[in-house]
Recover the amino acids of this structure.
């Protein structure tokens, strides 16, 4: 059905395209090649280790690809389905969660504060938390609770994955809480506390590990 | 939390100001209003480690949809953990894999996308909702110096060595990104030496990958962003960066 849907989709796109000539130049060769890249994601089956560790077949329903060449406008290519049940196709402006793609944005916020002189990369989180309490002391409270865990952890370590602190999301008590209420909102402080509650993986400042 | 402590602004507000300032109109912290975009996964296996069991229970109410598929080809993702980060770990199947996985199949996918709170699960490490156009725009603004200036760009590029990479690949963490130095010929036969700044992201039902490439023309200065609506899925970006650079280079 995937091939069938792809054919259907192609037919719909061709039908929707403006007549060749006046406004729509023929897609150039690069466009065709990049479209083939994103089509490969939704048309091929990928075999790899699943959660169980055993090989599984993975069929990607929908994918998008944007490419920005220096000095050129961004080109976007889409393939497959945004919603399999109702048959919505992926469109260029469709949004979805990006997971850790969030982290560079958070890092940019912190680096702006460094550029303004309000934080130093080399300062320990515990010291920064003492000095800055415009959040009503929430961070200072968390740091106080896990002082031993955060000893020696600098802001640079947090950004570079060299703090040795654990992720909150591979923690059994987080998984229990998530399982009980997957739709519950959780504060930054609660999420951080899951990771801080367990021992560090390595001493801060060592080589980064995710 | 650090941003909140220093600025007195909620993280969501500080992020929103950053994104609007950078011209990212489609990007938000958590889902915007109603959307029908599904986030899919193979049905989580029964049993297994206690942790997996917890997540399986959490997602039990998520709907499953079945469709008949007929894949065009079979691609195999390396199980070598050293091939995790780069896109070099995707290859051709063996005859046996071709036979086992090629051809039509009925596939069940569970739609996890709206069965959990993305803000509650991801927060400042993973709760942004965006698209590839905005991601490409953000990475271009970052690497042009427009977002943080030259000095800020220098800071975000500061690197420490990371996990060992596959042959010809060195992994680093920067202050917020990952970096791979790929030796000549290591990405594909005849590929040039490349330095790739990148960030892979995943959360239940979804993946993202963003890249900025340093190297000779026509690869140097290229920004690539990619999303899928399948996770858990095999590691990496399923070969998208390699395919994209080969397309650009006419390889």
């Amino acid at each position: 059905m995937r091939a069938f849907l792809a054919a259907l989709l192609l037919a719909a796109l061709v039908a929707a395209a403006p007549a060749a000539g006046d406004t729509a130049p023929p897609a150039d060769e690069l466009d065709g090649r990049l479209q083939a890249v994103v089509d490969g994601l939704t048309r091929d089956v990928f075999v790899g280790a699943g959660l169980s560790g055993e090989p599984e077949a993975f069929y990607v329903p929908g994918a998008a690809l944007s490419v920005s060449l220096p000095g050129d406008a961004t080109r976007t290519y889409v393939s497959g389905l945004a919603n399999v049940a109702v048959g919505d196709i992926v469109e260029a402006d469709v949004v979805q969660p990006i997971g850790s793609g969030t982290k560079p944005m958070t890092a940019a916020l912190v680096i702006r504060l460094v550029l303004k002189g309000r934080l130093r990369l080399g300062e320990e989180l515990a010291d920064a938390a003492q000095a800055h309490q415009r959040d009503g002391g929430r961070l200072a409270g968390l740091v106080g609770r896990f002082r031993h865990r955060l000893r020696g952890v600098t802001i640079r370590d947090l950004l570079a994955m060299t703090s040795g602190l654990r992720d909150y999301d591979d923690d059994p008590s987080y998984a229990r809480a998530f399982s009980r209420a997957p739709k519950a909102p959780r504060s930054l402080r609660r999420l951080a506390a899951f990771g801080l509650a367990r021992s560090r993986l390595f001493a801060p400042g060592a080589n980064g590990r995710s | 939390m650090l941003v909140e402590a220093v600025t007195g602004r909620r993280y969501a507000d500080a992020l929103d100001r950053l994104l609007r300032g950078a011209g990212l109109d489609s990007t938000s912290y958590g889902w915007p209003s109603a959307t029908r975009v599904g986030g899919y996964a193979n049905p989580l296996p029964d049993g297994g480690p206690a942790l997996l069991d917890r997540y399986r229970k959490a997602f039990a109410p998520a709907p499953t949809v079945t469709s008949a598929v007929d894949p065009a080809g079979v691609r195999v993702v390396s199980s070598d953990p050293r091939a995790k980060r780069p896109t070099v770990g995707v290859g051709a199947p063996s005859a046996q894999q071709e036979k086992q996985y090629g051809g039509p199949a009925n596939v069940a996918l569970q739609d996890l996308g709206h069965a959990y709170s993305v803000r509650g699960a991801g927060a400042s490490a993973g709760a942004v909702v965006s698209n590839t156009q905005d991601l490409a725009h953000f990475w271009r603004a970052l690497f042009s110096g427009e977002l943080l200036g030259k000095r800020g760009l220098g800071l975000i590029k500061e690197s420490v060595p990371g996990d060992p990479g596959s042959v010809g690949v060195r992994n680093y963490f920067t202050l917020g990104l990952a970096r791979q130095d790929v030796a000549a010929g290591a990405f594909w036969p005849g590929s040039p030496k490349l330095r790739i700044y990148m960030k892979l992201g995943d959360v239940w039902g979804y993946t993202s990958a963003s890249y900025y490439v340093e190297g000779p023309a026509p690869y140097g200065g290229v920004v690539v962003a990619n999303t899928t609506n399948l996770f858990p899925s095999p590691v990496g970006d399923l070969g998208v960066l390699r395919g994209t650079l080969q397309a650009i280079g006419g390889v």
